[in-house]
Specification:
The chain is of the alpha/beta class and 188 residues long. It contains seven helices and seven strands. Strands 3-2-1-4-5-7-6 form a seven-stranded mixed β-sheet, with helices on both faces. The longest helix is centred in the first third of the chain and has 15 residues. The chain is globular. The N and C termini lie far apart (31 Å).
């Protein structure tokens, strides 16, 4: 899961944090309750920690990049429990979370089968009636250019309902906007 230098600068910028906190996360989670214990998969530089903490009392983050995980522990100590690990093989117990969320990171998972493994792992760590929700960018030339040299495997929103249904999710909703899509689903 690589990010080019431009992408790294963007993701750790205050401009990105503000965009994510004020536009992306509120839109992705509109009218959605996260319960009492949420997991963010791929928190990266931690742009969403403060916004998520306003919605949920206990927040964990699963981060694949050890340097980013260490940075999160240092900068967000007390706000988020940081777990080192891969979203396709979460080192977490079954049915621990009331919500699993991810924002603008699914396209960094290197293949559709690995994305499906991440969806299955989200299902496994969710409690019954738990919610899986998030957002990602829509495929476009600009999106591809921003990701030159990165791992970039966009998720086609039109395929998401079928993919999540196959894993066992219900109450699936997928909405698209100009440059991104949001999704939400429940573990029955």
């Amino acid at each position: 899961m690589g990010m080019n230098y431009f992408h790294q600068l963007l993701c750790r910028s205050s401009v990105w944090e503000k965009a994510s906190a004020t536009r992306i996360v509120p839109w992705a989670l509109k009218d959605l309750e996260l319960g009492d214990n949420a997991l963010e998969v791929g928190p990266g530089y931690g742009a969403n920690v403060a916004t998520l903490r306003e919605r949920v009392p206990v927040l964990s983050g699963l981060e694949i990049d050890p340097a980013l995980a260490a940075r999160l522990r240092e900068r967000r100590n007390g706000q988020m429990r940081v777990v080192d690990g891969d979203g396709t093989a979460m080192p977490l117990p079954d049915k621990e979370f009331s919500a699993v969320v991810c924002f603008t990171m699914l396209h960094h998972v290197p293949s559709p089968p690995q994305q499906d493994e991440l969806f299955a792992e989200a299902f496994r760590v969710l409690r019954p009636d738990g919610v899986f929700a998030g957002s990602d960018g829509l495929d476009s030339l600009a999106f591809r250019l921003m990701h030159l040299g990165d791992t970039c495997v966009p998720v086609p929103p039109a395929t998401l309902t079928e993919r999540l249904t196959r894993i066992g999710f219900t109450d699936i909703e997928v909405d698209t906007a100009a440059t991104m899509f949001r999704f939400r689903a429940r573990r029955p």
